[in-house]
Design goal:
Layout: H1 3-8, H2 17-64, H3 77-82, E1 87-91, E2 98-101, E3 115-120, E4 128-133, E5 144-150, H4 151-199, H5 219-264, H6 272-301, E6 311-313, H7 314-324, H8 326-331, E7 335-340, E8 345-347, H9 350-367, E9 373-381, E10 384-391, H10 398-401, H11 422-432, E11 436-441, E12 454-459
Parallel strand pairs: 7-9
Antiparallel strand pairs: 1-2, 1-5, 3-4, 4-5, 6-8, 9-10, 10-12, 11-12
Helix pairs in contact: 2-4, 5-6, 6-11, 7-9, 9-11
Bound molecules: adenosine-5'-diphosphate and magnesium ion.
Magnesium ion is lined by residues 359, 362-363, 418, 422.
Length: 465
């Protein structure tokens, strides 16, 4: 992640929508569950307390009405503390002596006055007690009754009740998360489908993206994208038609000029005029070459019909290519060698394969020095079939390596005669048919500037068998 991205993605605003949704949902659920527990605790606490208070009063009254007083049933201390058993105390009428108690170990004196109160005692083991002191009976010698219950037990009960109440919410959390996860996953899957669609587009003839499985929220984006694609298509078509028409219109007059020049040759006086004439002829040849390149460029840009191609024998194809370029080799006295060690076949249109190799060999012949050496090798490297075109020219400066495949780019100071379109055409033709072109300066691993020549390597696609 870059610095900027790390800055943008703070923990509460992660870049993933899924994480963001889950984060907020979990937070919301936790807050909701805690609030429910708290409110239930308050509400049920009240309920539980009132109900237990009523019971205490009833118990106290059942003892107060008895005359003579019945003895309270003994309870174990443990029962009083952890199970909230009532502790009943029977006091003498003046409150001075404890006559009977269901748990004598609990030393809580008779409270002054009557009714409910909460007691905090120093003894940490059983510190908090709810106490109900019955009011004195109508006769002066009637015993006094006091009932106690452990307050911690009462709180525990209220809390347990409240927790039970919020259990559904707690159970809902994982279910909600799972559902959210599935929804977001399916949404991002359809986004990935769109992305795959976009990635597999042929940039020269992009087709509309399918809206079939796209969620409604993303549909406008895809729609807008399709709109853009339509405009790109039409812009491409316009540009291609213009180039094609222009090149086509230029072709005929240029051919006529070529013919006229051919006819004129016999009438040119020797000396400076011949020299000028040769320059003129070279210029016309170059223009014709450029027109042909432009035409093949615009043909490449046309939307392609998907048709299965017959397998082409690469060795035969290379031999044809070399022999056709022999004129250029002879003119520049370049020594051309051909070596075919393997005989791969590639299922692709022969014309496109030719335009890959023609342009690479043409370059090698053009940029090799006068009287230089060019080698074409068909062999295997690391188990893969490759075609190497080697020359002993200046090579390509490292800083221009990245641009030589651009249309109309020429390395400054390159020999006259080129248009800067050859490698662009070769690369497009190669990529459309699963071939890959790699350029490397010989001897210097491409690190230095110009080396002792260039190696253009074409990786052929793997053919079965
Ligand atoms: N074999 C080579 N040796 C040196 N430079 C080359 C070689 N092949 C291509 N280049 C450089 O790359 C540029 C682009 O090549 P290309 O697209 O074929 O256009 P063109 O040959 O018409 O100039 C050339 O102008 C040249 O500078
Ligand atoms: Mg070229």
């Amino acid at each position: 992640m870059t610095d900027g991205a790390a800055q943008a993605a703070r923990w509460w605003r992660p870049r993933s929508l899924r994480t963001r949704l889950l984060l907020w949902l979990i937070t919301l659920h936790l807050v909701g569950a805690l609030a429910t527990v708290w409110f239930s605790f308050l509400a049920f606490g009240n309920l539980v307390h009132n109900a237990l208070d009523d019971q205490m009063r009833l118990v106290a009254e059942s003892y107060a009405g008895n005359d003579p007083a019945k003895t309270p049933r003994p309870v174990a201390g443990e029962a009083a503390l952890s199970r909230g058993a009532f502790v009943v105390q029977i006091w003498s009428a003046d409150g001075g002596t404890l006559r009977a108690s269901s748990w004598p170990a609990l030393s809580v004196p008779l409270q002054p006055g009557d009714g409910f109160r909460n007691l905090s005692m120093d003894d940490p083991a059983h510190s908090n007690w709810r106490v109900f002191t019955a009011e004195p009976g109508p006769r002066a010698d009637q015993p006094r009754v006091q009932v106690l219950q452990n307050e911690d037990y009462r709180s525990r009960r209220a809390l347990r009740r409240a927790l039970l109440e919020s259990l559904p919410i707690a159970l809902l959390l994982p279910a909600a998360l799972l559902i959210l996860w599935l929804i977001v996953s399916s949404a991002s899957r359809s986004l990935r489908v769109v992305a795959r669609d976009v990635a597999s587009q042929d940039e020269r003839s992009p087709t509309d993206l399918s809206l079939a499985r796209v969620p409604e929220e993303i549909a406008p984006l895809v729609g807008a994208f399709n709109n853009l694609l339509a405009r790109v298509r039409s812009a491409f078509a316009t540009q291609r038609r213009f180039v094609q028409d222009a090149a086509h219109e230029l072709r005929t007059p240029m051919a006529a000029i070529g013919l006229q020049i051919e006819n004129l040759r016999a009438h040119v006086p020797a000396g400076e005029a011949t020299e000028r004439f040769n320059q003129l002829e070279a210029g016309v040849t170059r223009a014709q070459h450029l027109i042909e390149q432009l035409l093949s460029l615009s043909r490449q840009d046309a939307p392609r019909r998907a048709t299965a191609s017959e397998p082409v024998d690469i060795e035969v194809l290379l031999r044809e290519s070399v022999s056709q370029l022999m004129v250029l080799a002879d003119a520049r006295r370049v020594d051309v060698g051909f070596e075919g060690r393997i005989t791969p076949v590639v299922p692709a249109p022969a014309a496109e394969l030719r335009s890959v190799f023609d342009n690479l060999i043409d370059n090698a012949l053009r940029y090799a020095p006068e009287g230089g050496v060019v080698d074409v090798r068909l062999h295997e490297v690391d188990g893969h079939a490759v075609v190497d075109v080697l020359d002993n020219g200046p090579g390509i400066p490292a800083d221009a390596m990245g641009r030589v495949f651009d249309r109309f780019f020429r390395v400054p100071g390159s020999a006259a005669g080129g248009s800067g379109l050859g490698l662009a055409i070769a690369r497009t033709a190669a990529e459309r048919n699963g071939l890959r072109i790699e350029l490397r300066n010989r001897g210097d691993d491409g690190a230095g500037d110009a080396g002792p020549g260039l190696m253009a390597r074409v990786h052929l696609p793997l053919t079965p068998g």
